[in-house]
């Protein structure tokens, strides 16, 4: 059952304040910390300025692709509640979780069933599983039927080409959280009108379930 949502790839203060102060803010807000290939990447000095806000009811998520010690040390005092980790082995995640005392969203990029099965190796180090497309910085999708009947013992977040005006009910029996980024953009930039529609629709869904 869907319990919350995440808006990812925030890089400007206007959009961030709009989201934080929305009547129905998302449970999670994500920031791209170390992946310059993404148009949503935020350089460390800009990130520090951006995060100098009250989070209100949302949790902040550092999105990290195979992070090295340098970036982990640079962000350790920033107000992140979760680290979302791509391309990390279980032992690496265990060390990061222990050292920095953060909750962990382990991200898997999915192409076929063998990619889904990898989650079993991360049971002991993960708080939330995230299943995403292979696109990384691109808004691509994947076949959600690959995870539909898998019984996960941890909470599940779903990403990958979900649109701001999708019928959200179709995801209700698949995931606990929905993660949107490109689906909330117009010409590559976050669109507050799309964000508003999505958050209002999401609130309606929660009230129906």
Shape: globular
Percent strand: 15-25%
Task: Classify the helix fraction into a percent range.
Answer: 25-40%
Output the structural class. alpha/beta
CATH topology: TIM Barrel
Q: How many angstroms separate the termini?
A: 8 Å
Work out the helix count: 7
Return the domain count. Answer: 1
CATH homology superfamily: Aldolase class I
**CATH architecture designation:** Alpha-Beta Barrel
Overall strand count: 10
Q: pLDDT below 50 for ≥5 consecutive residues: which ranges?
A: none
Mean pLDDT: 93
With strands numbered from the N-terminus, the spatial order across the biggest sheet is 1-2-3-4-5-6-7-8
Characterize the biggest β-sheet: 8 strands, parallel, barrel
Gyration radius (Cα, Å) is: 16 Å
The string of secondary-structure elements, in order, is EHEHEHEHEHEHEEEEH
CATH class category name: Alpha Beta
Describe the structure using short key phrases.
8-stranded parallel barrel, alpha/beta, 22% strand, two-stranded antiparallel ribbon, TIM Barrel, 209 residues, globular
Question: What topology does this entry show?
Answer:
Layout: E1 4-7, H1 13-20, E2 28-32, H2 44-50, E3 59-65, H3 69-75, E4 82-86, H4 90-100, E5 103-109, H5 113-117, E6 128-132, H6 145-148, E7 155-158, E8 177-180, E9 185-186, E10 189-190, H7 192-208
Parallel strand pairs: 1-2, 1-8, 2-3, 3-4, 4-5, 5-6, 6-7, 7-8
Antiparallel strand pairs: 9-10
